[in-house]
Write a structure and sequence with these properties.
The chain has 84 residues and is mainly alpha-helical. 39% of the residues lie in helices and 8% in strands. β1 and β2 form a beta hairpin. Bound molecules: zinc ion.
Length: 84
Amino acid sequence: MGYIVRNCRLCAKPMEASPFMMCTTCLMESDRVRNYILKHPHVSIEQISEATQIPFEKVFRMVELGLSKGNTRSNDTIQTQTAR
Ligand SMILES: [Zn+2]
C-alpha cells in the first residue's frame, strides 16, 4: 500500500508518502550524522563520513540540505537543487 509521491531528498530514490523529506534509510543516516555533528561541531565532512560510515557525498548533501540545523524547511537554505 502507499503511493510513490516523491523522491527522497537525499538519495533521490522514489519514496512513499511520509511526513519526512527523506526515505527511512536516509532518515536513519542523517540522524547519525546529526548526532555526530552535535557532539563534534567542528569536524570536517570527511571525518563525519568516516565516523558514521556514510559515503562522503551523502554526508555532504545532508549538510548542504541543512540537516545539521535541525531539518527546518526554509526556502533560502535550498538554492542548489540536485536534479539527477
Ligand atoms: Zn534516501
